[in-house]
Amino acid sequence: MIQMFDKFNSEDRGQVGIGTLIVFIAMVLVAAIAAGVLVNTAGFLQATAEDAGQESVNKVTNRVEVLNTHGTVGGENDIDNITMTVRLAAGSSSVDMNETSIKYLSDTQVQTLTNSSKSLTYANKTNFNLSKVTDDDGSFGVLNSMNDRYEVRINTSDIENPSGDLTGGLSTGEKVTLEITSRTGGTTQVMLTMPQQLAGKTQGEPVEL
């Protein structure tokens, strides 16, 4: 019996058990660290997806709606100015017209316009001008209510003649595209064709576009 027990080394068996335990604990720690990394990564990806989704929504919803447009007849049977009445588009949050740009594209000119209302009372070749029609809370420049209405005025004569030779604005039949883009990227596109008949119109007379 004594010889039989000698075949088992209790010290060796204890060492093997401790080694297995150490390996097991190490595996648990690695798994915990990996799980933490996965949770953090999932949280980061979720936040990024939410930001991207909100940005996409803003580009679609945060924009203006053009209610009507008219032009002003110049001295050479052309359109010297374009005026648009704008409001918030349905579902849009507030739009700051001071941070809104208008891209003007005609057959001969491409120009990006910004708001000059704070410093100028008129539009020129690089600025549009804003005037109030209705404003519920006196926050002029910011469309934050569906009842707010502003007029946006664009000086086509200055844009079409950057050299200042006063040869006129947009002639009959000419087309112009206006892209109104808010700070968040929401864009409204307006395509206008000048009236075919301007003869007989007096200078300064408004005509529907």
UniProtKB/TrEMBL annotation:
TM stretches of this protein: 21-45
Keyword terms: Archaeal flagellum, Cell projection, Cilium, Flagellum, Membrane, Transmembrane, Transmembrane helix
Chief location bin: other
Signal peptide: none
Highest taxon of the lineage: Archaea
Coiled-coil intervals, chain numbering: none
InterPro entries given in the database record: Flagellin/pilin_N_arc, Flagellin_arc-type
Compartments in which it is found: Archaeal flagellum
One Gene Ontology term of the molecular function aspect: structural molecule activity
Biological processes per GO annotation: archaeal or bacterial-type flagellum-dependent cell motility
Cellular compartments per GO CC: archaeal-type flagellum
Family stated for the protein in its record: Belongs to the archaeal flagellin family.
Function: Flagellin is the subunit protein which polymerizes to form the filaments of archaeal flagella.
Protein name: Flagellin
Native organism taxonomy: Archaea, Methanobacteriati, Methanobacteriota, Stenosarchaea group, Halobacteria
